[in-house]
Write a structure and sequence with these properties.
Shape: elongated
Number of strands: 0
Radius of gyration: 18 Å
Order of helices and strands: HHH
Oligomer: single chain
Length: about 70
């Protein structure tokens, strides 16, 4: 699911960049693109953190987890 979200964010940003570049580029376009990239990266980071927390919870319930998935 996280891969789908990441792919969606990438496609969304590319579409926005294309639309902004239709009439030429200016400083506002660059700022908008940079903001979109920051939001995309933060979203991906949040997904990764959520997945890591869920994985840690899953391993905490398994007494053999240390041998299966060393930290």
């Amino acid at each position: 699911m996280d891969e789908i979200r990441s792919t969606y964010r990438d496609a969304k940003n590319e579409a926005k960049k294309a639309v902004r570049g239709v009439d030429g580029t200016d400083i506002e376009d660059g700022i908008g693109n940079a903001g979109d990239e920051v939001r995309k990266d933060l979203g991906n980071l949040g997904d990764d953190a959520r997945a890591a927390a869920q994985d840690a919870d899953t391993r905490a319930d398994d007494p053999d987890a240390a041998r299966k998935h060393p930290a």
